[in-house]
Each structure stands twice: as structure tokens, then as C-alpha cells.
Amino acid sequence: MNSADLLIPSPIRELTDVVFEKAGLKVFVKRDDLIHSEVSGNKWRKLKYNLAELSGEKPGTVITFGGAYSNHLAALASLGHIEGIRTIGIVRGDELTPLSSPTLRHCSSRGMELYFVSRNEYREKEHGALAKLLLTRTPDTLIIPEGGTNHLALKGVGEIPDECSGAGISPDFYVVPAGTGGTTAGLLLRGCSVVSVAVLKNAGFLREDIGQWASTGLLDLQLDYHFGGYGRYNQQLIDFIAWFETQHGVPLEQVYTGKMFYGLYDLIKRGYFAEGTTLVAVHTGGLQGKLER
Ligand SMILES: *Cc1c(COP(=O)(O)O)cnc(C)c1O
Fold first, then answer.
1. Which of 177, 179, 166 is CA-nearest to residue 69?
2. How many other β-carbons are positioned within 10 Å of the β-carbon of residue 151?
3. Residues whose CB is less than 8 angstroms from the CB of residue 286 and which lie 6 or more positions away in sequence, other chains included
4. CB distance 256 to 286 below 8 Å
5. Measured CA angle at 67 (ends 215, 101), to 5 deg
6. Ligand 1 test: best mutation among 43, 183, 223, most atoms within 8 Å of CB?
7. Which pTM was predicted?
8. pLDDT tens digits, 129-154
9. Whose CA is nearest to atom 3 of ligand 1?
10. Is the N end or the C end of the chain the one with fewer CB atoms within 10 Å?
11. Tens digit of each residue's pLDDT (9 = 90 or more) over 44-85
């Protein structure tokens, strides 16, 4: 990608609110959502080194996996379009079409080839029948797992603390939303302490998944801010997002960043953090999936 199109290091700024003042906290937001107009947030960080891996032998093909609302699919489709790399998305749900969601429409418009498979086949990932067939037909293929989480992705995420310390900020805790937990793991690998807000229900398994990637750092996994499950939301969350956007001038969406900031505010109001604590909340992007209002 043309580095002139990238806002790296991403901006970081302090949020002001009497709630933070009263609790004696400093709260910063790291605006990874501003990194690029289409390939942004943690998806850019996760793809950065994966792409470098591929670019030696361009044009290659990248195959990846995702659901109908996957920001990872959308980011990879845009990246492929920009870099002239063929992208293939294997999508969960054989009842879907390229028109089923704004995300899938975006992927098609950026030239991603979409294949729709049953939930059973999807679970088999690269060992599923279709994926195997595609792989034998397309040599020189990179497979990137669901959500983009692999070792190279963790390395990309691990640059967040470098950018923060470059700006003179070394927080006591990072705050991030968790889907697969890759972003959380990338920060933990760097020895950071991370408050990780799970956006899915019954997400206790993430502790083990994250532990397989990173055994350093300090993980504080928050399981109570999923709002009914992945992609679910209610009026309370929508109202909070609208309030937050007015208060801070920072856009949020309802799948990840809205739940993270809701959880962060709730913890702060309950006196969870000691006075004098500095927090950096990472805005992981995802605004392409924002509900239209
Ligand atoms: C994918 C995504 C996440 C989840 O990141 P994981 O590394 O899978 O935990 C968080 N926020 C946004 C905006 C995302 O698109």
C-alpha cells in the first residue's frame, strides 16, 4: 500500500469527561480507525506483515474466511484491490449471496471472489472440500485464518505500544474489544496489561485461545458486555453510542467499539480502576459495518 495513504502512527488523544476526572483517570483513545479509508483498525495491523510475506511473489492469491459481517473480509478485499492481488473469501452460510449484506456487497465491488459454504463445511476451514479444491487449483496461495489472526498478525498489533510510547504515553492498561482475541494477544505478547471486552456470549474460551498465542502480559477478560451475543445489540447500546459520539466526536459501531467503550464506562463508574491509572482504549475500526440510521 502507498504509505502516503496511511495515517501511521495513528493519532492518539485524551478523552475528557467528568466521570474520568472524578475517578482520577487519564483515558486516551488510539484512533486506529483513521489508519486508512478502507483498510483500517486492527485489520490493517493484522494484515500488514501477512501482505509483506506475499508481496515478494506477486501476483499471488489470498484465501480467507469470514461471516456476512466480517470486517476482516472487507479489509482484505480492499487490500487485494489496491495491491492487485486476487482474493477469495469463503463465507459462512450457504443460503447467502454476494448481495446479502453491505459487507459482502463491498467485498464483491472490490473484486473478491466469494464462495458460500454450509456451517459444517465452514468449521473445517482450509480442510473443507471447497477450500481444498481451490487450493489445488491455485498455487502460490496464502491462507489467512478467520479474523486474520496468526503470528504475523500479532506482530503487527504489537506495534501499537511502540506508537504510544513514541507519543510519550505508557498506559497501565490497554482496552480493546475481543472477537478472536488476536488483538488482545498481540498486546499481551508485548508484555502489556490488557482489559479485553468480549463481544460474544460465553466467551470464556477466549482465555485459552489467547493463552495459546501469548503467555506474557496481564489479561483481564470482561465477559459481561456482549449484549446478547456477536452482532447483537439493544437500544441501550445504540443510545450509548449516540451519546459517546456527541460527547467525544469519535464515531463508534455496534459490533465491537461500542461494546468496548460501554464496558469501559461501566467499569469506571463502578470504581474498577485505581486513582492515577492511565488507560489507552484502542479504536479498532470496523466503521464499515456501522448500522445505518
Ligand atoms: C475484527 C475486529 C475486532 C476483533 O479483533 P480480534 O483480534 O479478533 O479480537 C475488534 N474490533 C474491530 C473493529 C474488528 O473489526
1. 179
2. 11
3. 33, 41, 71, 253, 255, 256, 257
4. yes
5. 145
6. 183
7. 0.95
8. 999 999 999 878 889 998 889 999 99
9. 179
10. C
11. 999 999 887 766 656 589 999 999 999 999 999 999 999 899
